[in-house]
Design brief:
The protein has twelve helices and seven strands. It has about 270 residues and is an alpha+beta fold. It has three domains: about 80 residues, no CATH class; about 110 residues, Orthogonal Bundle (Arc Repressor Mutant, subunit A); about 55 residues, no CATH class. The strands form two sheets. The protein has a four-stranded antiparallel β-sheet. A hairpin with a 4-residue loop joins strand 5 and strand 6. Helix 9 packs antiparallel against helix 12. The termini are far apart.
Amino acid sequence: MTKWDKWNDCHDYPSQVRRQERAREAALTPLSIKGQHAQFQGSEKKYLTFLDACSCPDFQERHKPCKHMYRLAMELYLFPRGNMKTDASAIRIPTVKQAKITTDLTKLVDRYPIEQQAELAPLVNTMISLNEPVIAPASPLITALTEAGFFHAEQQSSDNVKLTIPESYNKIANTICRQLQVASEKAAALGSVQTVAAAPTTAKQVQAASLGTTRSKWVVLALALFLGGLGVHRFYTGKVKSGIVWLLTCGLFGFGWLCDVIAILINRFDGCS
């Protein structure tokens, strides 16, 4: 029996069903999840949520599961997810506190060694310019910024996390990025970092890397010629989603298969050389 089981007799109440529906909204994406507790952004402050309690006013007043508790249970697969949406960019923060949050974050960043700031600079710059998550090694500064709400972090491995900046932090992110770039320039001038990271790794690049580097053009061509209708060449080069489409439609009814063969021959097919 888990801590969540204590609430089994109240989920069907109309007031609880409404909270379950709100819990599935993208805006309820947790800031972080550790074990069986999570942190959520509220309208005024952050809330610490467990399966049997939450620091939000709703739970403190009613002592029944709030929307944060339902979302945590869904994230842990202890409650039906339904059409649950996850989008870190949808997390809302109070706009009236933008200036204070910016000041607090810049002070927070300044408390960490200049080397850590310099290493983080290209990561934040990539997230802002490409508007997509990056994969980065965990560091004390990244952990601190995640706990402060600046990053939404998802554990990818024992060492790496996938970082996203919520959309509501976009203006703040520009300020933090400039601060980190100044730190990077200072670190380079002092010689405290030999090379400020090459290009950061985006989530899409990690997915491609996990499937191997560039494949041999001739192997891909052979797979396309003999098994192209099944999408094998696309699976082989990491294009899993389109590979499934090729499999179900016999290579887009032959037209997609022909285009792929031509693309491979003229070196226009991504993932092989």
